[in-house]
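Why do we care about 3D structure at all? Because function follows from shape, and shape follows, mostly, from sequence. That is the central idea of this module. The next example makes it concrete: a single protein chain, its amino acid sequence, and then its structure expressed as tokens.
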Amino acid sequence: MESVFEIIAEPNRRAILSLLVSSEQSVGEIERQLGMPQPTVSKHLRVLRDAGFVECTVDAQRRLYRLNPEPLQEVADWLAPFRQFWSAHVDALERHLDRIDRSRPTRKKTRRRK
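And the structure:
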């Protein structure tokens, strides 16, 4: 069985997951939005479904896929220390930019005559 990271490493699977974040989609809708052939979409959906990333319901003759975010918790847990690292650095950058902004003299904006 592939790891969570191996599954989401594939760009087409990430694209499918990104689509499913906002709403459930049929295979045909995913195919049209991503410009992928139907067999390719189906292949990736099968991998995502087997790994638990997506769930499927049947609506008449359509299969509707929706995101199951639980497997992504492993990725979120792994990213947590990096998120803290970047958050501290982004906060420091914001403080630095604020100091630069406050130290600049303010200029009046005037319209140029043509």
